[in-house]
Design brief:
alpha+beta, five-stranded mixed beta sheet
Length: 94
C-alpha cells in the first residue's frame, strides 16, 4: 500500500487521514487553540493496518504542516504524545 496523508480543516478543527481503496484507514483529529496552535486530540488506525506505521506517518505529516504554517502542536492524544516523546527531532513544533 502506498500511503498518502491528507489534511482537511476549517477555522475550528480538522484531521490528517490516510485512505486506502477509497476509505479512511487512519485518522488523527485536531482542534485549533488560537490562530497558530493545534491540539492533537485523537489518533486511530483501522485494526487491519495496525503495526504498519500509519499512526507515525500522521504525526510526521502534522509536524511537516506545522513547520510550513508556523503552527505549534499540543499533543494531548496519548499516541501522539508518545510519538513526540520518542522523536526529539519533532520538538521544534511543540
Amino acid at each position: 500500500m502506498s500511503e498518502t496523508v491528507n489534511i482537511e480543516f476549517n477555522e475550528k478543527n480538522g484531521n490528517f487521514n490516510i485512505t486506502s481503496e477509497g476509505r479512511k484507514v487512519a485518522l488523527m483529529t485536531f482542534v485549533f487553540a488560537g490562530p497558530d496552535k493545534i491540539i492533537i486530540d485523537h489518533t486511530e488506525v483501522s485494526p487491519v493496518f495496525n503495526g504498519k506505521g500509519l499512526g507515525k506517518k500522521l504525526v510526521e505529516k502534522a509536524v511537516e504542516v506545522a513547520r510550513e504554517k508556523n503552527w505549534k502542536i499540543i499533543p494531548l492524544c496519548p499516541f501522539a504524545k508518545k510519538t513526540f516523546d520518542r522523536n526529539p527531532q519533532f520538538n521544534d513544533v511543540l
